[in-house]
Specification:
Mean pLDDT: 94
Oligomer: single chain
Helix content: under 10%
Structural class: mainly beta
Strand order of the largest sheet: 1-2-3-4-5-8-9-12
Largest sheet: 8 strands, antiparallel
Strand content: over 45%
Order of helices and strands: EEEEEEEEEEEE
Low-confidence stretches: none
Shape: elongated
């Protein structure tokens, strides 16, 4: 529950001036779980909700969600498992992704509304972790999702990509 006071906003009777008395109210929750329920299995998961509103503002945005507030709902998950016994000891796999709900990047009476659509991006990895080195292959955005992020802007993100890595340990 956060209230930001003294935001700069246009002066109501003269648009050539500004006044520093605006208010934005945000209420929400953020939760994160980091767990290793069994040897070799790791989970990182998160969720956020943010309800944000311009409480004292220019009539153009009064009572609206600020264009700078990002998506109201986001979530992330990454799970990985690594074998610790047998001939395949050191072999591991990972899977997870990110979600963001619709994001209003324009939200005013004058400019109307423009919303970036919700997206879900899925990623996966396979690796071999040895005492002296680590080899990995990662696939990002496996479904080749066309998506954008924005903070009053519209920025396209990478389509499907693959990354190989080699680490030497000494």
């Amino acid at each position: 529950d956060i209230t930001v006071k003294d935001l700069v906003r246009p002066y109501p009777t003269n648009p050539n001036f500004s006044v520093q008395d605006g208010t934005q109210i945000s209420r929400g929750v953020e939760a994160e779980i980091i767990a290793s329920p069994v040897r070799g299995f790791n989970v990182v998961a998160g969720f956020t909700y943010n309800d944000s509103e311009m409480n004292k503002a220019d009539e153009d945005v009064q009572g609206r969600r600020p264009a700078t507030a990002m998506s109201p709902y986001t979530a992330n998950l990454w799970m990985s498992y690594q074998l610790y016994q047998g001939k395949l000891q050191g072999l591991g796999f990972g899977f997870g992704g990110n979600y963001a709900s619709d994001n209003l990047i324009l939200n005013s009476v004058f400019y109307n509304e423009f919303t970036l659509p919700a997206y879900t991006v899925l990623n996966a990895a396979v690796f071999y972790d040895h005492e002296k080195f680590r080899i990995g292959l990662k696939a990002d955005n496996m479904t080749n999702e066309h998506y954008w992020i924005g903070y009053t802007t519209m920025t396209p993100q990478k389509l499907r990509s693959f990354t190989a890595s080699l680490s030497i340990k000494f």
